[in-house]
Please model this.
Amino acid sequence: MSTLPVLIVVSVITLLFLYKLVRKHKGDSTNNFPNGSMGFLPVIGESLSFIKAQKANGGQEWVEERVAKYGHIFKTSLMGSPTVFITGRAGTKFVLGAETEVLAPRQPVTIAAIMGKHNLFEVAGTKRYKPLRRAMMSFLKPDILQGHIKRMDSMVKARIDKETKGKETITTISFMKKLTFHVACQILFGITDDPTEQALYEEFGHCFEAMWSAPFNFPGTTFRKGIQARKRIVKTMSPIMEKRKDQIKKGTLNPMNDVLSCILSLETEAAENGDQEEPITMNEVIDNFVALMIASHDSSAAVLTWIIWKLAKDREIYDNVVRDEKKQRKQQGGGETDGLTWGDVAKMKYTWRVVQEVMRVIPPFFGSFRTSIKDTSYGGYDIPKGWQVVNQTFIARLETI
Model:
């Protein structure tokens, strides 16, 4: 019998034992850490139970169990990082109101690996943040997006007709993900080629799964599949971006066509204006494309799914939304129109309130992630430099809304 497996097992057990001793020793120091469990295994910590809860839409219950046991501030280990959870309104005010020199917006290592280290969330507080944000906001300003309402209305109607034709039922969340991805590709990124859109949709599906997975880059793991999918996304988008960059330089493409072109135009603008600011790199463009695609379509799909769920459950709200829509139709003349405009949407006040209330009680994001840039404290507990800080405000349970 080979001794190699035995040596591996003994080595792992020894490392775990030493890890426990070191961690116990640290607990005897002068640091006043919150109560909680860092898990049994190094690096993994409580990641596996957290991931399992997230996939089962039980992230809130996972947090509530620990709050009941340890209090509104507790420690754990997630995605390879020691972590402090801070819950409640006061905690939200502390985390979101902290200076970036204290708590900087940083995503868990798995999310950061998929989005890329140059995405807007990761560069907050650095000199690269302002130019990247400026490029995005130049297209994402309300007056720019309002001009795309009619086009979005037409796209949504066409996609609904296509997906529901000949079908009695459809899976809402799956349909909403395809719908919002389609809108994001066309409106935000100017990707109008169907085969390219479909290929990207499949690859981003692997990326979404990898973001909430154990950070092990081994063959066959979910995380590895996500990393490989990201590489294929880069391979697909690189020639598209190079072509657009060339078109912008030649003046044959308007940078305001989409947010991707806005970001690509930064280098051209810097050269023309003799700007001393460091030009944007293709790595930065890629990372922010991936991050914005994830942020724009996945959360929107979740919100739309919960709105449909609420309308299906509450007949009174459904009837009021229909009445809101019919009232607007009547003001337009009662027949089919060329499509909704921003003015039409703004007048549907009851529908707006339904959307806002659903987002209030069922936020599309699990929580806010930060990294402690220097030693700090909250609620009488120490938060060491380098620790991950997660804020989550409890929300109403689905049965109560």
Summary: The beta strands are 73-78, 81-87, 103-105, 368-372, 376-378, 381-383, 388-392. The chain is about 60% helix and 10% strand. The first strand starts at residue 73 and ends at 78.
